[in-house]
């Protein structure tokens, strides 16, 4: 099988399935950012979120009421046209921003985040856009369940 054959049979899109401790909370989070969301009618333990029509970026969430977001979180990478515009929309939705210092250190320790989770306080946060050496401008968005969603645009 040639490289072209492999590329042809694997043509499509990725749709990560991430864990969440609360379907209503994750739906509220992504709705605030402007995404379209849906919960399966016969399964309140599954939802999907997407910024537009079917065929583009999409992420699914599956309910795990016993989720430890510091041991069981997931990851996804999303490529977008303008990461700065995406960052602005996330910050406008109320997500804590600039979650790292100018030196690249996280503003919140793992203990801080664990305590916030225990108290029912939000742990969603986003880093400001940074130009990476691999020719991408990126942000790191941590959703309410501590899933890492890296978002980037080519430089």
Could you walk me through the main structural features you see in this protein, from its secondary elements to its overall organization?
The protein is α+β, with helices and mostly antiparallel strands and 155 residues long. Strands 5, 6, 7, 8 and 9 form a five-stranded mixed beta sheet that branches. It has a four-stranded mixed beta sheet with strand order 1-4-3-2, covered by helices on one side. It has one domain (11-154): Roll (2,3-Dihydroxybiphenyl 1,2-Dioxygenase, domain 1), CATH 3.10.180. The chain starts with a helix and ends with a strand. Strand 8 and strand 9 (148-154) form a beta hairpin. Helices cover 24% and strands 26% of the residues. The protein is globular and about 55 Å long. It is built from four helices and nine strands, in the order H-E-H-E-E-E-E-H-H-E-E-E-E. It has helices spanning 3-9, 23-33, 83-92, 110-118, and strands spanning 17-20, 36-39, 46-50, 59-63, 75-79, 125-126, 130-131, 136-142, 148-154.
Which helices and strands occur, and which strands form pairs?
Layout: H1 3-9, E1 17-20, H2 23-33, E2 36-39, E3 46-50, E4 59-63, E5 75-79, H3 83-92, H4 110-118, E6 125-126, E7 130-131, E8 136-142, E9 148-154
Parallel strand pairs: 1-4, 5-9
Antiparallel strand pairs: 2-3, 3-4, 6-8, 7-8, 8-9
CATH topology: 2,3-Dihydroxybiphenyl 1,2-Dioxygenase, domain 1
Look at the helices and sheets and give the structural class.
Answer: alpha+beta
- N-to-C terminal Cα separation, in Å? 33 Å
**How many β-strand stretches?**
9
Low-pLDDT stretches are: none
Annotated CATH homologous superfamily: 2,3-Dihydroxybiphenyl 1,2-Dioxygenase, domain 1
Helix content: 10-25%
The rough form would be described as globular
CATH architecture, please?
Answer: Roll
Mean pLDDT: 87
Rg over CA atoms: 16 Å
Can you tell me the CATH class?
Alpha Beta
The proportion of strand residues reads 25-35%
Tally of alpha and pi helices:
4
Order of helices and strands: HEHEEEEHHEEEE
